[in-house]
Write a structure and sequence with these properties.
Keywords: Cell outer membrane, Membrane, Receptor, TonB box, Transmembrane, Transmembrane beta strand, Transport. Belongs to the TonB-dependent receptor family. The structure is a single chain. The chain has 741 residues and is mainly β. The radius of gyration is 26 Å and the shape is globular. The N and C termini lie far apart (56 Å).
Length: 741
């Protein structure tokens, strides 16, 4: 294991060697800390600010997002050190994202935002991200890790991701992007917008769809179809107004139909054909709708003082209809158990495959995972800054009142398997499988003070969260919700979350770091404690000999890690959490940038390399509920986290064209806690995936695009949970056209 002392020694050795380099003059990639008051909808707003934050951060610019024309957020984020992802469906519909070793399941342990507003379906009461904003319509993505995270919560351990939707343009413009390619995959993305002196608007539409790359024997579609519509309208006072004001309304609607399943493959079947889908998954389908209403009001009293208030309303409904259980001779087993021990449950798997017909008491049990989510609230940010002689001061205060809920009203349908076709035999009664409402009321506030004295910047801060969690379980015998069999439970949390960061600038080198408290809310189980940790980081941004980059060491000391009972990771799907005790997560993040043709007037050849080492260790022994992590012993590694990963991107850029190639290595990871060599039945092997993207511009108005995914056509598994192996995206080629006016 890499002890903290070794990380610190390696880090300071690097600083010493870097300091011996002859200064190369002021490099634009390392700029002195600026004094800019940012919009409440962004964390950084630009690479300029991100590179000077008193904490590790990354800003994915519009240019970076467009390089490969991705619709998959997994592929977009893979270039960022410290981001650990395991895929699920190959299209990025429901990502599993970890920042610095947080549990990645459904991205539920990081603060997810769109335009500065919490965007998970129910961020406090049910944060699992079954809804995730479409990356293809985003203008930029901001990733904050490490210290000074008191501004963004409630999840402060690993960090925050903020997706910035397309802004209202400064001038009249029309944009159209359309592409088509492998697996009958298509995309159309259009935007129209304009701004006048006191009014601006933007209307945007995105559809992307595919027939899917997996194969059912009956030839049914295994793909998806997703629509996204966003409209923004803003009004503002004249620039010369004594008190400047701006009000923007944002409306967003999306719907999705995806023929996705939790059923994977046995190892034997995966080796024979990784893109096979079993007959038992032929009716599995997710149907979802999301609606957002957001109003933002900004008051600018002066260049030094402004207040921004945002009111938001997010409504998300989904029904993921999928086989969750199999019954043989009247004995029912969950699909996670079946595929965890395929030899023991061979007859169950035969029924799932459709290789045998149902007997009198043999059934496939399909659950209507019907849930409605609500997330609403109002938040205010006050920013006041002033300057003294050789000093700069900024005080930021934020307040938020938030309410969210998850309403489960579920039932199970029973099917017989007849000659490879599923036939409905017992339709279920809605509400007889799950019939409960979980909710949360939360008040959050923070204060952060930024003090800059010459080249030193300090950012102490304090966050406060007051959370009341509740669950009303009406019971499966009271589908009318009369309250005749009602059970209630509550849990409350009251916590202060401190943090402090620093940054010191030299000519071509800066040193930054800090310490902050990590926090994740518990569930509504009475007496359950929140997840807590103390997190440290020490890093440097540097520029010498044409190479710029960042090196960071981090150490997260958990006093109480929480695991979650998610169906996505082989659990029951109750969302109940359980204590996992003390854990240490530490690692190194490295980012390097170099332009091989920096002095060439016609061509540029930038190269970017990112590497992440994530080392995890449980410090106590326990048995996790429902075998989600298995039997855990002190010294075991956490599951679902790759120890090593790297990404390299090389681009050839010209005024008229660009060609981009990206290679990603994702190290092997285990699906159960353990140490030493990973057992074959608990291992997801490493993979190396090469992608290609290109664009040719005929003029300012017309361009053609092309990209290839998995250029080497590597056959690889992305997950072994919840029920068998699932493949990554195979080789695919896509071409399109862009029109701008």
């Amino acid at each position: 294991m890499y002890r903290p002392s070794l990380i610190i020694i390696a880090f300071f050795s690097f600083l010493f060697l870097s300091g011996q380099q002859k200064p190369m003059g002021n490099d634009s990639t390392l700029i002195q800390l600026n004094e800019v008051v940012l919009s409440a909808k962004v964390i950084f707003g630009s690479k300029f600010v991100a590179k000077n934050r008193t904490g590790s951060s990354y800003y994915l610019s519009p240019e970076e997002i467009k390089k490969f024309n991705y619709t998959d957020v997994n592929r977009t984020l893979r270039a960022v050190p410290g981001v650990n992802i395991y895929e699920e469906d190959g299209f990025g519909l429901r990502p599993n994202i970890s920042l610095r070793g947080t549990s990645p399941e459904r991205s539920s342990k990081i603060t997810l935002m769109e335009d500065g507003v919490l965007i998970a379906p129910a961020p406090y009461s049910a944060p699992s991200a079954y809804y995730f904003p479409t990356i293809a319509r985003m203008q930029a993505v901001e990733i904050l890790k490490g210290s000074s995270q008191v501004q963004f919560g409630p999840y402060t351990t690993g960090g925050a991701i903020n997706m910035i939707s397309t802004e209202v343009p400064d001038n009249f413009g029309i944009f159209l992007n359309s592409s088509y390619g492998s697996f009958q995959s298509g995309r159309i993305h259009a935007q129209l917008g304009d701004s006048r002196k006191n009014f601006g608007y933007s209307v945007e539409y995105l559809n992307y769809n595919s027939n899917g790359f997996k194969n059912l024997e009956n030839g049914d579609n295994t793909g998806f179809d997703k629509n996204d519509l966003v409209a923004k309208f803003k009004i503002n006072t004249n620039p010369e107004a004594m008190v400047g004001q701006e009000f923007e309304v944002k409306l967003q609607y999306s719907d999705e139909t995806s023929n996705e399943t939790y059923l994977g493959l046995t190892q034997e079947d995966f080796d024979a054909d990784p893109f096979r889908r079993y007959a038992g998954s032929q009716n599995d389908q997710m149907n979802a709708e999301h609606f957002q209403l957001m109003g933002t009001h900004a008051l600018k009293f002066s260049d030094q003082f402004r207040i921004t208030t945002i009111g938001y309303y997010n409504d998300f409904s989904r029904n993921w209809y999928k086989v969750d259980y199999v019954t043989i001779d009247g004995e029912r087993q969950g699909i996670g158990n079946i595929f965890g021990a395929p030899n023991e449950f061979a007859s169950y798997i035969d029924l799932v495959k459709g290789s045998i017909n149902s007997g009198a008491n043999d059934l496939l049990n399909a659950r209507n995972n019907n849930r409605d989510y609500l997330s609403t609230g109002v938040q205010t940010k006050l920013d006041y800054h002033w300057s003294g002689e050789n000093t700069y001061h900024d005080l930021e205060i934020g307040l938020r009142y938030h309410y969210d809920e998850e309403d489960r009203f579920q039932w199970i349908d029973d099917y017989a398997m007849v000659n490879g076709d599923m036939q409905l035999v017992n339709p279920g009664v809605p509400g007889t499988n799950a019939n409960r409402v979980s909710s949360a009321k939360a008040f959050a506030s923070y204060a952060m003070y930024k003090l800059k004295i010459k080249d030193l910047t300090l950012t102490p801060g304090l966050r406060y969260e007051n959370i009341a969690l509740e669950r009303l379980n009406y019971g499966t015998n009271d589908v009318e919700r009369t309250g005749s069999d009602l059970s209630e439970r509550q849990n409350k949390v009251d916590v202060f979350i401190p943090g402090i960061g620093f940054n010191y600038n030299f000519n071509d080198l800066s040193v930054f770091g800090g310490v902050h408290k990590g926090f994740s809310p518990p569930s509504n189980q009475p007496g359950e404690n929140p997840e807590e940790s103390v997190n440290y980081e020490l890093g440097s941004r540097f520029s010498f000999a044409g190479i710029s980059g960042e090196l960071v060491g981090f150490y997260n000391d958990y006093s109480n890690l929480l695991g979650s009972d998610l169906a996505a990771t082989g659990g029951t799907g109750s969302l109940d959490q359980f204590n996992a005790g003390e854990v240490r997560v530490q690692g190194i993040e490295l980012l390097l940038n170099y332009n091989f043709l920096e002095n060439n007037e016609d061509l540029q050849l930038p190269f970017t390399f990112g590497y992440t080492l994530t080392d995890t260790e449980f410090l106590n022994s326990f048995g996790s509920e429902n075998d989600i992590w298995g039997e855990v012993s002190s010294g075991d590694e956490m599951p679902y986290i790759s120890k090593h990963q790297f990404n390299a991107t090389l681009s050839l850029e010209h005024q008229n064209f660009e060609l981009n190639v990206s290679g990603r290595y994702n190290g092997a990871f285990r699906t159960m806690a353990g140490n030493g060599p990973i057992p074959a039945n608990e291992k997801v092997n490493s993979n190396f995936i090469l992608d290609l993207g290109g664009r040719y511009r005929f003029n300012d108005h017309l361009a053609v695009t092309a990209n290839a995914i998995n250029l080497l056509d590597e056959k690889y598994a992305v997950a072994r949970v919840p029920a068998g192996l699932r493949p990554g995206h195979p080789f695919g080629v896509y071409a399109g056209i862009e029109l701008r006016y």
